[in-house]
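Progress against Task 2.4 (sequence-to-structure conversion) is shown through the following example record, which the project officer requested during the mid-term review.
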Amino acid sequence: MIQLTTRRRRAARSVARAGIVVSAAMLLVSLGSGPHASAAGANAGSVLVQVPPPDPSAGQPLTSGVQATPFALVPPAGAACKGDSATGGYRVNSYIVPASVDPGTLQWDATGPTPTGTGASLRQPLYGSTGNSPFVNATTAVSTGQLTGLPPFAFAAFGTNGPAVVPAGTYNLGLACTLGVASSTQEDRYWNVQMTFGADANGLTWTVVAGTTTSSSSSSSSSSSSSSPSSSSSSSSSSSTTTTVKATTISSSTTTSSSTTTTAVRSLASAATGSGSNLANTGSSPLPVVLWAILLLVFGRMAIMLGRPVRVLPPHDR
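Structure tokens generated for the chain above:
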């Protein structure tokens, strides 16, 4: 009887040891698997600041504006993420941060760049010129992963607190491709431009920093763009701008609508959905890691218990 029990214990111990090896191997595989972007977002070029349609001068460079002035951010022709949203889980996000912040190091949650902040610690998404909706977590074109359906932007969402939200100074702003949840490897690539902000009686004023845009073909099907951000008068009043440009998208073939509006800056209000078509965040699931870690602990415990010698009690204690 004792011999039979010993054999069973040895067999069970062998199984436990094999389980340890398999669980440990699978745990390492789970930790190292899953889609990841590069360690830091790659600078994929600049975005052009242009007059958005349906303004008659749509596609022309826009060098300055006020808080309510709509503007289009036009990436280089064919600008795309490494994968699309439908099958690769990539998303398109926007940002505005101080010039001292490297856009390649940014991370995003469901509402925009994180950690959220205003003033000297400004980290905000860009907001649409209509509806004050943040442009976050938007989807790419199917298959190609190209940036499509980009809306015209404005800073009207910052309201009367605009100069406090964006203090005078120079800032990076643009568009970025992201993959998965907030992490140091989330950002895939980005397209950037710099603007210098000031203030007037109506709120913010802004000017595109010369030399921060590069020559590229406009992604708008309606016109091609000049590489120079010079010329083009754009310092228009708040009222005249808002009546000229209504809800539209940069791409004339795509119309983006939003059912959600945000009337307050993200740091002062609850999270709002993005202006693009939103899908659930698709990062690597932690479930396999947890599962194999638990199995590793179970098999390890079994191996320890079964490795102990069998204690045989004297006949009178049985």
